[in-house]
Amino acid sequence: MIWIIAALMQTAVPAEHVEAYSRMDTVSSYPASAGNCTMLGYTASDNFPYVLAERAIAEAKLSGVDEETAGSWASEGVKRHVASFRRDLREAQSGNTEAEIAASVRAVFDILSSKCETVAADPISRGIFSAGTPEAMREARAALEDPLLAGVGAASWQTPAIWARGELLMGLGVCKNRLSREDHDHLLAEHLPASSDTSPAGRWMAGQYVEGIRSSADMDLDATQCGRLLSGRIGALNDASQ
Question: How far apart are CA 153 and CA 132, in angstroms?
Fold first, then answer.
């Protein structure tokens, strides 16, 4: 059965139109990427999909393909590439260790960045899709990646000391009700960023403390366990700060 379907697909495009079909397949992949590319510092016109389709069909007609067939190819290609694009991103997301998770997040954005570069470089996108400045694109990518990487200590602003301090603050939140008020307040005053610190690192570390409080009931550590937890995290912070 599979070979019959394959044979039918092979005969659906006349030999003289294979190159036109291949070109349509390439261009049909662009709409699947373009919507996400704007988050990475690219600019797409509001009518990008429509103008792109018009230009692609016009190209195919110059190769002798009738408009109805070209439109059918375009529709088929867009559907196929949307599914393929989602599958590529899904397959890139994997890993159990912190390093594997960080690598998988970066792989997702590497795939997307590569596709965006391809769209921007194609003359068919001229005037309807363009790249931003290198600095703007780096900042846009970091803004998307960093919240995903912060949980494994791999955000662009995250040093080992910042990670260790955030882990300590989370532990302090978890153990808030297992410490004396004096000990808790002393550690909090020493390590919690000032309220005026609106940097990504400052906001993340403050959030770690809050997350610890929210997790305390689920973890349900006793005083002895909290002592070991905080002692270990203070030691880790001292090592990371050297």
Answer: 28
